[in-house]
């Protein structure tokens, strides 16, 4: 179980000294009242929209061009860099947000890094050239090293943990840069090895003295990023339908696709926010599983918008893929989202054996809808039915 109190921090330093030139980076209290996202964190998330949009757009165009295998591998790798950099900052800020000038400047450097990463997304997805994306990633991560070194200097009880983070991140950045010079046949084995090492760093570092992250703050931050990704999904869908209307596509087909996509996104939002997550973030082990698992939630949610755009391209004869591949581009990420949210957000609330299986059953039916004439509309109806059924079940459990 993680520590319940910070290193003598009694209140919220970010709120009390916003904009101060310098403040010692001592850990904040884990039970600090009224802890919510700061304007800097919101700005940080907003800038990440550019990278998420680039990854989703690249996935859309590569799948529509029938480069499915390369698109999936490229998207998964690029989205890992986006998600991992965002997640590391989020958990660090939950424990050590001082909001002084140095902290703000370092965070802005991280934002610059994600913009560089976003600029490299097209070449990474289309041609497999990760040079620019790697530069952006390294900029983000080295800025994170600076933050951890500040924490190590100011917080003696967690100094070993902070130094482990700084050392692990620094060594791995050397690995990411060295990967650019490896032969092509070692590109993906080295990528997987570095990803595994990245995931292992927090587990290794937190063993020494767990950081004092704030459960409610973490749950809110993840919820806000989920909203951003779902918003990007809506934007991608809208732009695709606008393009189809400009091309004089059949209105009936567009209407059913748009209706199905809208119902699906509404249901995704409803399912994710049906219950509060901070209540079961009670240990470091649970937090790591929950936090890492959101890679599937964020990645699949962004891919839903790309999949809907692929289906619009198919309806307007602008896609090189067939009907089943186009349908799968939408149904597979929706099913993955349902299963991931069920595992991380729904199942821990213990609704009972039968109610607890509604989301996995719906995910299976969504996958089966890939073989139907109207996969997007049927997916929307299935996910809407899932929400309606869960509302009835929750009402019965409450009585």
Strand content: under 5%
The name of the CATH architecture of the largest domain is Up-down Bundle
Q: Order of helices and strands, N to C?
A: HHHHHHHHHHHHH
List the total number of helices: 13
What does this structure look like?
There is one protein chain. By secondary structure, the chain is mainly α. The protein has 2 domains: 38-206, no CATH class; 215-398, I/LWEQ domain (Up-down Bundle). 74% of the residues lie in helices and 0% in strands. The protein is built from 13 helices and no strands. It has helices spanning 13-16, 39-64, 68-96, 101-127, 131-154, 159-179, 187-206, 215-246, 251-272, 284-315, 323-346, 358-368, 375-398. The longest helix is centred in the middle third of the chain and has 32 residues, at 215-246. The protein is globular.
Summarize, please.
The protein is mainly α and 399 residues long. The chain has helices at 13-16, 39-64, 68-96, 101-127, 131-154, 159-179, 187-206, 215-246, 251-272, 284-315, 323-346, 358-368, 375-398.
Write the layout of secondary structure elements.
Blueprint: H1 13-16, H2 39-64, H3 68-96, H4 101-127, H5 131-154, H6 159-179, H7 187-206, H8 215-246, H9 251-272, H10 284-315, H11 323-346, H12 358-368, H13 375-398
Helix pairs in contact: 2-3, 2-4, 2-8, 2-10, 3-4, 3-5, 3-10, 4-5, 5-6, 6-7, 8-9, 8-10, 9-10, 9-11, 9-13, 10-11, 11-12, 12-13
Features:
mainly alpha, 13 helices, 399 residues, I/LWEQ domain
């Amino acid at each position: 179980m993680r520590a319940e109190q910070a290193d003598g921090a009694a209140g919220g330093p970010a709120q009390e000294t916003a904009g101060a030139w310098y403040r010692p980076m001592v850990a904040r209290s884990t039970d600090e009242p009224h802890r919510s996202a700061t304007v800097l964190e919101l700005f940080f998330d907003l800038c990440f929209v550019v990278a998420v949009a680039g990854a989703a757009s690249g996935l859309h165009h590569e799948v529509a061009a029938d480069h499915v295998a390369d698109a999936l591998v490229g998207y998964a790798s690029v989205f890992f860099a986006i998600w991992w950099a965002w997640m590391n900052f989020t958990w660090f800020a939950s424990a050590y947000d001082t909001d002084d000038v140095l902290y703000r400047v370092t965070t802005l450097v991280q934002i610059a890094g994600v913009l560089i990463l976003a600029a490299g997304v097209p070449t990474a997805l289309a041609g497999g050239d990760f040079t620019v994306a790697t530069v952006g990633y390294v900029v983000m991560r080295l800025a994170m090293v600076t933050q951890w070194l500040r924490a190590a200097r100011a917080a003696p009880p967690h100094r070993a943990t902070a130094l482990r983070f700084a050392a692990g991140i620094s060594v791995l950045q050397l690995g990411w840069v060295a990967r650019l010079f490896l032969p092509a046949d070692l590109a993906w084995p080295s990528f997987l090895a570095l990803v595994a090492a990245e995931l292992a760093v927090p587990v290794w570092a937190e063993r020494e003295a767990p950081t004092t992250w704030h459960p409610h703050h973490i749950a809110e931050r993840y919820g806000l990023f989920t909203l951003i990704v779902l918003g990007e999904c809506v934007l991608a869908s809208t732009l695709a339908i606008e393009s189809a209307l400009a091309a004089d596509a059949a209105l009936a087909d567009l209407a059913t696709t748009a209706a199905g996509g809208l119902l699906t996104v509404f249901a995704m939002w409803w399912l994710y926010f049906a219950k509060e997550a901070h209540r079961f973030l009670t240990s470091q082990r649970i937090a790591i599983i929950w936090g890492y698992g959101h890679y599937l939630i964020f990645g699949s949610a962004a891919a839903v918008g790309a999949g809907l755009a692929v289906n619009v391209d198919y309806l307007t004869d602008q896609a090189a893929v067939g009907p089943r591949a186009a349908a799968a581009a939408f149904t597979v990420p929706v099913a993955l989202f349902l299963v991931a949210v069920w595992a991380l957000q729904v199942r821990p609330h213990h609704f009972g054996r039968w109610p607890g299986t509604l989301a996995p059953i719906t995910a299976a039916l969504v996958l089966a809808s890939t073989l139907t004439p109207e996969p997007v509309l049927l997916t929307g109806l299935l996910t809407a039915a899932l929400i309606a059924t869960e509302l009835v079940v929750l009402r019965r459990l409450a009585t």
